[in-house]
UniProtKB/TrEMBL annotation:
Keywords attached to this entry: Toxin-antitoxin system
UniProt-listed SUPFAM superfamilies: RelE-like
Record's protein name: mRNA interferase RelE/StbE
Database matches in Gene3D superfamilies: RelE-like
Keyword Glycoprotein tagged: no
Protein origin, superkingdom: Bacteria
Any Pfam family the entry gives: ParE_toxin
Keyword Transferase: no
The organism's taxonomic lineage, starting at the top: Bacteria, Pseudomonadati, Pseudomonadota, Gammaproteobacteria, Candidatus Kentrum
Length: 83
């Protein structure tokens, strides 16, 4: 699958420390094999429709056709409040 990262997710990444950013980058690359990825949960009543858990961060994304659209990358304490 193709991966598209929205401006909001890029802005979120800029506020994350280097160690966590490296882990998140590796996780984003794994999303290219969606739906064969563990730690992915379909969300209800939220847009984007999926979340991938990596450490203390949540990658919120949606799948549109053959593209994984990453909407936000947030700390777990903020991930469902701001989306």
């Amino acid at each position: 699958m193709k991966i598209n990262i929205r401006k909001s997710a890029i802005s979120d990444l800029k506020n994350i420390d280097h160690k966590d950013r490296k882990r998140i980058h590796a996780t984003i690359l794994k999303l290219s094999t969606f739906p064969n990825v563990s730690n992915v949960k379909k969300l209800t009543d939220f847009e984007p429709a999926y979340r991938f858990r990596t450490g203390d961060y949540r990658i919120l994304f949606d799948v549109i056709g053959n593209t994984v659209e990453i909407g936000r990358i947030l700390h777990r304490k903020n991930s469902y409040r701001e989306s």
